[in-house]
């Protein structure tokens, strides 16, 4: 398969964009874990208390 110049540039940008996307997705996942932890701390305790 032969790529012309425009297709090669598009392919390179796609790879770089993919790396940025993976980076930001991992950061979003980290923040979701933090938020879930905070929500669990703020959740009222249910059940009998003695």
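-> sequence recovered:
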């Amino acid at each position: 398969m032969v790529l012309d110049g425009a297709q090669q540039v598009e392919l390179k940008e796609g790879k770089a964009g993919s790396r940025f996307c993976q980076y930001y997705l991992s950061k979003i996942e980290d923040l979701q874990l933090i938020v879930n932890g905070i929500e669990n701390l703020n959740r009222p305790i249910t059940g009998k208390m003695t």
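The CA atoms of residues 9 and 25 lie 24 Å apart.
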